[in-house]
Amino acid sequence: MTTTTDQRAAEAAEALMGRMFGAALGAAELFTIYLGDVHGIYRALDEGGPATAAELAERTGLDHRYLVEWLQSQSISGLLTIDGTDVWTDRFALAPGVREALLEPTHPVYAGGLAAIVPAVGRALPQLVEAFRTGGGVPYTAYGEEAVRAQELLNRPAYVNSLAAEWIPNVPGLHDLLTKGARVADLGTGAGWSAIELAKAYPAVHVDGYDNDEDSISRARRNAAEQGVSGRVSFEVRDITDVAADGTQYDLVTFFECVHDFAHPVEALTAARTALAPGGSVIVMDEHADEVLAAPGDEVQRFLAAASTLWCTPQGLVDADSDVVGAIMRPDQLRHLAQHAGFGQVDVLPIEHPFWRFYRLTP
Fold first, then answer.
1. Residue 342 in contact with residue 270, Cβ under 8 Å?
2. Residue 88, exposed/middle/buried by CB under 10 A (0-12, 13-18, 19+)?
3. Which of 258, 261, 301, 353 could form a disulfide with 297 if both were Cys (CB 3.0 to 4.6 A apart)?
4. Model pTM score
């Protein structure tokens, strides 16, 4: 006779099997989305209108047979529509919402960066497997250019739509400071979009962006030039802990979603404090991890925990003496880091966001 315990175990196993299938489906569809993005297929359909597989092959220069398979997959997934049932002769078009989610990189719902995460982790996976045995790190470069692209695309919509319109007004005195003119250091700037949007919103500021990744800084310089702010935004490859080395003083230092990645977060925060001009402050935007562990967690916490395991912590462990926190950086951990870096006060700012929490650090 089956016991209640056995029944519960069987039900849990069946539920887990269903969840794993859903995860595999999602990963497979992200791969197909990545192919459509990297080959410009969505863009070709958007700009040229509905097309058959043959017409799209001529339009894009891609292989006809592969396009048939991809188009069929996308229509079954609901990302494309088809005006019939014959994948060889009928026309395909973008489904509603695809343009905003996959083709407009500054739209609030743009999610194209998510598709680049899967191949980036896949590229680094052999090293990640070995790192679990050795305790070593996995360098950012191991994830390839997809990693830089994913980081750039994932956060840019928020900087464009929320940085000046929502976040800065919720930091007491910051809008007035930036309007009047300020020297800003954006540490861990990546491809530079936080610094660029700050400069676009406040013409009197000058922003220095620092990052230790050369590819990211190259992209940041190109982005600044294209956005017309390169005269007021400069980017440099530099170790974050050396930001105060040349004696430049900043009215504001920002860390946008990066403190949890640092091998030496206390040293980075200490350097930021040392670089502050009198009356200056540090703004930290980092992951909205639950204040205490809740297991199982909701989808946001699950995403953060998985990203911490596959992405953030391995990159931070490249330094042998690393103190990397990882993506599950709770408020008490940030306060602890800030205290050891010499800050006297850490305030959680009244900015609501599902993925990020905002802090103001003052000496």
1. yes
2. exposed
3. 301
4. 0.93
**β-strand partners of 207:** 184, 233
Residue 327 CA to residue 258 CA, distance in Å, equals 9
- What does the alpha-carbon distance between residue 307 and residue 309 come to, in Å, rounded to a whole number? 5
Q: Are 189 and 212 in contact (CB under 8 A)?
A: no
- Per-residue DSSP letters for 169-232? GGSTTHHHHHHH--EEEEET-TTSHHHHHHHHH-TT-EEEEEES-HHHHHHHHHHHHHTT-TTT
Residue 296, preceding peptide bond in cis (omega within 30° of 0): yes
Instruction: Report residue 168: phi and psi, to 5°.
Output: -60, -40
Backbone angles phi, psi at 109, to 5 degrees: -100, 10
Q: Which residue in this structure is represented by tokens 């896949």? A: 122
Looking at per-residue pLDDT, the higher value among 162 and 247 belongs to: 162
> Could you give phi then psi for residue 245, rounded to 5 degrees?
-65, -35
Structure confidence at residue 2 (pLDDT): 56
Q: 164-182: per-residue pLDDT in tens?
A: 999 999 999 999 999 999 9
17 half-sphere exposure, CB direction, 13 A CA radius: 6
Distances (CA, A) of 316 to 222, 311, 327: 27, 9, 11
Q: Between vectors from CA 318 to CA 314 and to CA 324, what angle results, nearest 5°?
A: 65
Q: Decide: 144 and 311 in contact? Cβ < 8 Å.
A: no
pLDDT tens per residue, range 264-306: 999 999 999 999 999 999 999 999 999 999 999 999 999 999 9
CB 269 within 8 A of CB 258: no
What is the C-alpha to C-alpha distance for residues 312 and 82, in angstroms, rounded to an integer? 40
Note the residue count of the chain.
363
Output the DSSP codes for 248-278. --EEEEEEES-GGG-SSHHHHHHHHHHTEEE
- Distance from C-alpha of 120 to C-alpha of 113, rounded to nearest angstrom: 11
